[in-house]
Design goal:
Blueprint (H helix, E strand, L loop, with lengths): L1 E7 L6 H13 L3 E9 L1 H37 L7 H5 L9 H10 L4 H4 L6 H9 L2 H6 L4 E8 L5 E4 L6 H7 L9 E3 L2 E5 L9 H6 L4 E6 L12 H32 L13 E6 L1 H6 L10 H22 L11 H5 L1
Parallel strand pairs: 1-2, 1-7, 2-3, 7-8
Antiparallel strand pairs: 3-4, 3-6, 5-6
Helix pairs in contact: 1-2, 1-12
């Protein structure tokens, strides 16, 4: 059996792609998972996987993730935020023509969540409480889960260790600052972890024995066109921002790997070579409209789920034999 670690990105409802990836990985008993570093929607998927495995093994993890995502589809079905016929006429699964979406976009440019939501009501809190056993999540020894959030005051990443995980940590990692007030934990306030770690790779290198890091890439690295509309420009800015932290870590990792390969790092320094792998569907993700991150239609989630499974199937078929031997992406080509 080969042991891997996972790096899970955020991305709203696009996290259903990661759900599909994890579902397929859990089917393969040739692989075991030692640790997960995750942000935002990736943190939710990670918590579901770890909690589900602690309670019911691999099948338990798959069932818990399925329960969560289909619950989100059921909630969305009764939401006023629905795709219009105009949305369905254009590709990308967006909801940009929805009057509720347009009104929300306009209001959020004028008012902060502290004005619009002074009671800090977050419907995700109740869902997390209903689905995830956080006591079990903290005490289970099988898979380590590290969750990243952005410290609003310092701008630094806070990486929460497995024993620190609770619903506030997950909500902090998923906190979009234009939608919800910052989440307070131990006297500090936190926003979505994607601003500074989407996700952090360092915890996997520092706390796991496995040298295999599998990045589940949800946010597209490149853009098909130069954005010209205000909405598209803002979306591309967010994509670049949310990928920048991983790119910085990959720069450092490529430098260390080069020194390691040249024999310039003393073995007593405790630095080991890390192999990087990636599961993605760049074409699909790059074609989605920015507003699709708020679309939780069952058909859309099913599409993303199947895309995640298919991408993982292709990756396993092409690269399983390379796991433990070499990286299956050229870090310099992808990130530098």
């Amino acid at each position: 059996m080969k042991t891997i670690t996972l790096a899970l990105q955020g991305g709203g409802s696009h996290g259903a792609f990661t759900w599909g990836v994890l579902d397929r990985l859990l089917e393969d008993d040739r692989l075991s998972m030692e640790a997960i570093s995750a942000t935002s929607a990736g943190a939710i998927n990670g918590a579901l996987l770890v909690c589900g495995m602690a309670d019911g093994g691999r099948d338990g993890a798959r069932a818990l993730m399925s329960r969560f995502w289909w619950h989100m589809a059921d909630v969305f079905r009764t939401s006023p935020l629905q795709p219009t016929p105009f949305d369905r006429m254009v590709p990308g699964w967006g909801i940009q023509f929805s009057p509720v979406y347009q009104l929300g976009e306009a209001i959020l440019r004028l008012f902060s969540p502290y004005q619009l939501n002074p009671l800090d009501i977050n419907p995700l809190r109740a869902t997390l409480r209903a689905v995830i056993d956080f006591d079990l999540l903290r005490r289970q020894p099988a898979v380590q889960l590290f969750v990243s959030a952005t410290n609003v005051r310092t701008g630094k990443v806070r990486i929460f260790a497995p024993e620190e995980l609770n619903e506030d940590v997950i909500l902090a990692s998923t906190c979009l600052p234009n939608l919800f007030p910052a989440v307070e934990i131990d006297g500090e306030h936190y926003w979505d972890g994607g601003f500074v770690a989407n996700p952090a790779i360092y915890p996997l290198m520092a706390h796991a024995k496995s040298s295999e890091v599998v990045i589940v890439q949800v946010t597209p690295m490149s853009s098909r066109t130069v954005p010209t509309s205000a909405d598209a420009i803002l979306h591309r800015m967010n994509e670049i921002s949310f990928n920048s932290s991983v790119m910085r870590e990959m720069h450092a990792l490529a430098f260390i790997t080069n020194l390691h390969d040249r024999g310039w790092i003393d073995r007593l320094a405790g630095v080991r070579k890390t192999h990087i792998h990636m599961i993605q569907d760049e074409d699909l993700m790059a074609a989605l409209h920015p507003s699709s991150k708020f679309n939780a239609e069952r058909e859309f989630l099913e599409l993303l789920f199947q895309a995640g499974r298919n991408s993982t199937e292709d990756w396993l078929a092409s690269h399983f034999d390379h796991i433990g031997k070499t990286s299956t992406i050229d870090v310099s080509e992808v990130y530098l």
